[in-house]
Amino acid sequence: MRTIRFLLEKEFRQIFRNKTLVAMILMVPIVQLLILPLAADYEVKNINLSVVDYDRSGYSADLVKKITASGYFRLTSFNAGFKKALHDIEADEADVVLEIPEDFERNLIRQNQQSLFIAVNAINGVKANLGGAYLGMIIREFNHELRISWTQPSRTNTAPVIEIVSSNWFNPFMNYRLFMVPGILAILVTMIGGYLSALNIVKEKEIGTIEQINVTPIRKHHFILGKLIPFWVLGIAVFTIGLVAAWLIHGVTPVGNIAVLYTFLVVYLFAVLGFGLLISTYTETQQQAMFISFFFVMIFILMGGLFTTIDSMPPWAQVISRMNPVSYFIEVMRMVVLKGSGMTDVLPHIGMAAGFAIVFNGWAIYNYKKTS
Amino acid sequence: MKQLVTFIRKEFAHVLRDRKTLLILFGLPIVQIVIFGFALTNEVKNSKIIIVDYARDAASRQIIDKIEASKYFELERANLTHRDIETHFKKGKTKVAIVFPANFNSDLMHFNKTQIQVLADASDPNIANTLTNYLSSIVMDYQTELTQQRDTPLQIDTEIRMLYNPQLKGAHNFVPGVMALVLMLVCVMMTSISIVREKELGTMEILLVSPFKPMMVILSKAIPYLILSLVNVTSILLLSVFLLDLPVKGSISLLFAESTLFIITSLALGLLISVKAQTQQTAMLISMMGMLLPTLLFSGFMFPIENMPRVLQYISHIVPAKWYYIIVKSIMIKGLDFSAVWKETAILLAMTFALLVISIKNFKIRLA
Lengths: 372, 368
Known about the structure:
The complex is a heterodimer. Chain A is an alpha/beta fold. Chain A has helices at about 1-15, 20-40, 60-70, 80-90, 105-110, 125-150, 175-205, 210-215, 220-250, 260-280, 285-300, 315-320, 325-340, 345-365; strands spanning about 45-55, 75-80, 95-100, 115-120, 160-170. Chain A has a 4-stranded mixed sheet, sandwiched between helices. In chain A, helix 2 packs antiparallel against helix 7 and helix 7 packs antiparallel against helix 9 (about 220-250). The longest helix of chain A has about 30 residues, at about 175-205. Chain A is elongated and about 95 Å long. Chain B is built from 14 helices and 5 strands. Chain B has helices at about 1-15, 20-40, 60-70, 80-90, 105-110, 125-145, 170-200, 205-210, 215-240, 250-275, 280-300, 310-315, 320-335, 340-360; strands spanning about 45-55, 75, 95-100, 115-120, 155-165. Chain B has a 4-stranded mixed sheet with strand order 2-1-3-4, sandwiched between helices. The longest helix of chain B is centred in the middle third of the chain and has 31 residues, at about 170-200. Chain B is elongated and about 100 Å long. Chains A and B meet through helix 2, strand 4, helix 6, strand 5 and helix 7 of A and helix 2, helix 4, strand 4, helix 6 and strand 5 of B.
């Protein structure tokens, strides 16, 4: 016990002596929480629309008015020809081109049928898909209104109508930030904990001070614990700062019990730090440790379900993301913060995190050799 | 000249000796391309859906069959009541529920009107929206089948063409982004760390007292990374062409020329960081937080810039990766030529020049 206490004293001193490091640990979460959620707004809006209107009739004007009034589209240009509009797409000034054919109004009334042509810049798949769907919906609605104004609605012979009433739970205002902030906080804690612990032992290796520790009677698990606990405390501190920042900046407060979050965090941090330590036992220089942890953290983040849902991944990718500790943390954060899930709901997640912690730390202790 | 070659060989030896870093360096783009190309889709499918059917009649049965047949949904079968919905949502496995009222079919037939309730877990707004839309269109389909016999007057059809990316794959958006990211990583992070490392270990001192010009020391550090980066660009392009079926539509030589320009910009940035930082950890943290995150954030390949607040949109203009991303997208996917990207190229050139001037001005021959 005494050995660990002295080791802890040494580690804490080294951390707090490094002023830039401390400043980074405190500032980075705040700055990131300030900017990231503002940037990560995936709501599809502000779609730039270019209209090519060969008809110039009352109907075409009505249609364009209806589209711009929807709020999803910004009319950026009126072009005389399709070629010009295509040029706007190439220059990224337009996302969608709507082409209204000549004599649209007249032919619609005479022939009862007309078609409109829409071209979408589909490099960004989500935007193209939703944008096209929105435009289609507005045109259908426009069509419906036209029909009503032309045909007398008969009272007796109405078609059966199924009305769909939808309600959005847990996030009734469809606020994207509410969804991103908990996930980003999870990523932050993971990044800071993972990087710092990965760099730590390696630094001693590179500078050579590890030799001094190796010749002392300090046991392997003492040494690992001595490295682990300071970052564990720091991780909890960073998380707390992040939680307060999320509340102050974005007004995001957990619906559920904070104690559930912390229970998970306490277990989860051991897993992340264990992973960092594992990396540092396998590497010789800080540069190596940095790149290897960057490599894994990148995969963890991408496969963690922060940006894209895990459910839509192909089966092999879902298996990988189940072996990714970050995905559990992101899930727990969202469950507790948004939905108010309780301890029983997250118990399986805590179990997984504990499993990761045991595997990573056991492996790290096993792999750390006092003699080279 | 001979000296320079010797120094470059020394740097190459440093880089090539470190197998683990090298593996990651070349492995990272490959893994990213695979993940982005195959694992990450923005399409929503196989969502678990709860069905609460109080009606249990022909109409509700038919709609449920339709939902089951669609690739977007996976049914949770069980005799659920709407009280179960919340518990299931809280467990996080199910994202949407549909409730049929009692007497669904008879209401529909006799009153010509009935309701269906759709409940969505809106913690992810886009998914909630998409799933609700899917469900609505399934129900709409059913409705049109009911009224099929009537013909509809004044029909407006819409024909939608998806330009550049008809299958709406994620790769079109991501490959240029991965290129920018990897180049940033190799050039900024590797150069700054390797220079600061010599400072930290004290070997920089030895280099600086040698008759070799300090500028040459820096140049010889930069050249290996330039070459490594070009290798990475080539491998990313090969992967995207042969693995993802994403051909380069524009001129390849132009693409390489622009990439070289961007590599030099990044190297200049790495140089600037290494001039300022004293320890490897600081250099890493600065390049991580100062360069990589902004690249991810503001290049526009992961986060839509047009949705950001004005201030952030202005900030995005000073991120070199944003301009490179636009250039690559234009050349590779849209197949445009130089006349379409000259503005972006000029901006990158100006940035490179400014960065080089600042870092050379700040470069100290003596260590403190």
